[in-house]
């Protein structure tokens, strides 16, 4: 039987101003959710992507974001505009022109976000560390919270990312923790105010 083809609209997976990592995350998430009809596997795939990010196993290419330079001056500070000014100061011939897309990665540092965008090639050549917390919060957690909340409930989605940040992600759907709230898809009769203990897990994922 033909399962048809999944078409995306309005999501980050089809937008050009997000990094490839987020597109991979959402593509895998929807594959498990819509093609395999397996919400547990969908969350599991998200765990694996977060683990790769936080352990530094994601390439600069997959972390690269791009923004269109629609004009030279903006009302507020913009990361790609600020980067273009620094590129022009370093090597004028490499500065971007209006209408071109400016690729960048976000690196760690004390400055504001608009000051911490850097050319991917330049950042790699100079061994600048990637701001993994930014990518976790803005490129994964923010977009995925909007998708996970209707499926698993707000409390479960928040708990999922709390564990992800601490690096102590367990098998999220076989947890024996007291703060576990059953996901809406596996127990539709239980609301987020009624907690129960799930079947104890035999081992952690990692």
Quick overview:
The chain is mainly alpha-helical and 206 residues long. Helix content is 43%, strand content 6%.
Structure description:
The structure is a single chain. By secondary structure, the protein is mainly alpha-helical. 43% of the residues lie in helices and 6% in strands. It has a 3-stranded antiparallel beta sheet with strand order 1-2-3. Helix 1 packs antiparallel against helix 2 and helix 6 runs antiparallel to helix 7. The C terminus is likely disordered. It contains 7 helices and 3 strands, in the order H-H-H-E-H-E-E-H-H-H. The two termini are 37 Å apart.
Features:
disordered C terminus, 43% helix, 3-stranded antiparallel sheet, mainly alpha, globular, 206 residues
Mean pLDDT: 81
Q: What is the number of helices?
A: 7
Q: Label the structural class.
A: mainly alpha
Could you tell me how far the N terminus lies from the C terminus, measured between alpha carbons in angstroms?
37 Å
Instruction: Give the assembly state of these chains.
Output: single chain
**Strand percentage, roughly?**
5-15%
The strand line-up of the biggest sheet is: 1-2-3
